[in-house]
Design goal:
Length: 294
């Protein structure tokens, strides 16, 4: 792997606020062209990490390279190569959607067609609407439009679909898939685990400022984490078997039961199940280390 294959390289990142270590030694590589999702509970350090990578927050320790440059020393040219959809919206209440997207496009050397971007985020019917008259979800779509109109090589999306209705989220996912196909590298933070599962090539789970695991959505939590649970009811009550051969278990049950197997279900843990288990284990380990009684 050459340096050109790596869009973001982080080693030993530490960020302290008064009385709080927000990021406590994070290592992270994001490969060029991948969608990487940063997951973690509220206050885990996702936004702080992202803001250091964007050049908006100074780090206390560690090495950071983003598109080959230290963001703490970055210039305008570097800035034009990244796109940002931050958690809080920019406030240009009197401008219309079309005015704003065209205006932002003017800041970049190689922008996308603003009208195509407006269509891609589903705001065509709101072109002439003033920003202050948009709904929360529409406002968020505009944020996404402003983040991608500069045709960035690397796009930061901090909880981009908060407030989206289900249809808008699906539409947004298509936009992200199209950007990825076009070669854009994407760092996504999200609390929607289905979003990460759908979009991300790899995910990183951060808790208490530490990266506790990095892997593909399928491999997270180790081999045992996605083992199927076969559940049914028999004379003794509810039964559950964990197995990586659920078909064989069901076949055995069919031969035991005469007819319908009561309450039969096969459940495969989702990324959300695996994530919650990881966080639970991490919290328990941290409490043990700190001497907190269970
Ligand atoms: N400007 C600040 N001053 C002091 N403490 C801060 C500041 N910004 C964040 N923190 C603290 O640092 C920790 C990490 O915050 P951060 O915003 O990075 O978390 P997050 O993972 O993005 O959370 P969320 O999912 O809620 O957005 C939190 O404990 C937060 O209270």
């Amino acid at each position: 792997m050459t340096d050109n294959d790596i869009a973001v390289r982080v080693r030993g990142l530490v960020k302290r606020y008064p009385g709080k270590v927000a990021v406590a030694g994070v290592d992270l590589d994001i490969y060029a062209g991948e969608v990487f999702a940063l997951l973690g509970p509220n206050g885990a350090g996702k936004t702080t990490t992202t803001e250091v990578l964007e050049g908006y927050r100074r780090r206390d320790e560690g090495e950071v390279s983003v598109l080959g440059t230290d963001p703490a020393k970055a210039d305008r040219r570097w800035r034009s190569r990244i796109g940002i959809v931050a958690q809080s919206s920019r406030d240009e209440a009197e401008a219309s959607v079309a005015e704003l997207v065209h205006h932002y496009a003017g800041y970049y050397p190689n922008p996308r067609d603003p009208d195509e971007v407006i269509a891609a985020v589903g705001l065509e019917s709101k072109r002439k609407t003033r920003t202050r008259k948009l709904s929360g979800g529409q406002r968020r779509r505009l944020d996404v439009a402003l983040g991608v109109v500069g045709n960035p090589e690397l796009l930061f999306l901090d909880e981009p679909t908060t407030g989206f209705d289900p249809e808008a989220r699906r539409q947004f996912w298509q936009l992200i898939e199209a950007l990825r196909t076009g070669g854009t590298t994407i760092l996504l933070t999200t609390h929607y685990l289905d979003e990460a599962e759908h979009l991300a090539d790899r995910v990183g789970v951060i808790a208490d400022g530490r990266m506790i695991e990095i892997g593909t959505p399928e491999s997270l939590g180790g081999r045992g984490a996605r083992v199927a649970r076969v559940r049914w009811l028999d004379a003794d009550g509810a039964r559950e078997i964990r197995t990586d051969q659920p078909t064989a278990e069901v076949a055995a049950l069919i031969s035991r039961f005469d007819g319908e197997i009561p309450e039969l279900s096969i459940h495969r843990p989702s990324l959300e199940d695996v994530y919650l288990e990881l966080i639970r284990t991490n919290t328990a380990a941290a409490e043990l280390e700190a001497g907190v009684p269970a």
